[in-house]
Amino acid sequence: MTLENKQIKELITSKWDESSATYDTQHGHKVKSLEEADAWKSMFKKIIPEGKLDVLDVGCGTGELSVLFAEMGHNVTGLDLSEKMMEKGRLKSMSQGLSIKFLKGDAENPPFDEKNFDVVITRHLLWTLPNPKTAVKNWNRVLRDGGYAIIVDGIWDDGSLNTRVRRFISSLGILIFEQANPWKGNYSKELAASLPNASGTSLEESRQYLKNAGFSKIDAYDISHIRKIQKQYMSFWKRIGYNYDYYMLYGEK
């Protein structure tokens, strides 16, 4: 049984509100080191032009990428359904003396006029959208001509035996030796069944989303080096299960 769109958005918002207190403790979400921050910035600089740009961080969560782009000197707006996640972002912005706007809104239909931004950035978002095709088309809408959409995403569960074994061992180790619940925060089966990319979004699927939305000059970067940096700060048991296919894709309007 699948849910109605309004129900899906309400459940997603509630889930991330609930997760806001511990989200930044999770490796792969929180930027844990200066080395990782510099690696992200270096990758972004390969795509976007120099100068002060207007950047929209869609599904910004606790504002990790918003902070990075603001540190790079850009005008940044963060958009998310979860006010509690954005509260964390506002605190980061204030504590670091940055000026980032955080607005409540739907990533699938950003509440902005056409041609408002130079860059739309999204990380770990496509899997949690019920209508990803609509979302990417609307990201194109709010971009100025010559602007860029950047998607950082991956396959979180490829369904293979190798992945199932690794995740089982990882979860068991976390449960026994770290005395933590490795399944806490997972979507319900009903909610996951309502999302077309609940297990993640492949590079080719994301490429097709950009192409269908009218983007050109579509290309991808390998960011496995960033994953290696992230794994340095993980426990042994978390590293075992952290075997995602991970990529950065971009397209020009």
UniProtKB/TrEMBL annotation:
One of its GO terms (molecular function) is S-adenosylmethionine-dependent methyltransferase activity. Keywords: Methyltransferase, Transferase, Ubiquinone. Residues 56-151 form the Methyltransferase type domain. CDD domains: AdoMet_MTases. Signal peptide: none annotated. It comes from the Archaea. The keyword Electron transport does not apply. InterPro entries: Methyltransf_11, SAM-dependent_MTases_sf. The keyword Isomerase does not apply. GO terms for biological process: methylation. This is Ubiquinone/menaquinone biosynthesis methyltransferase.
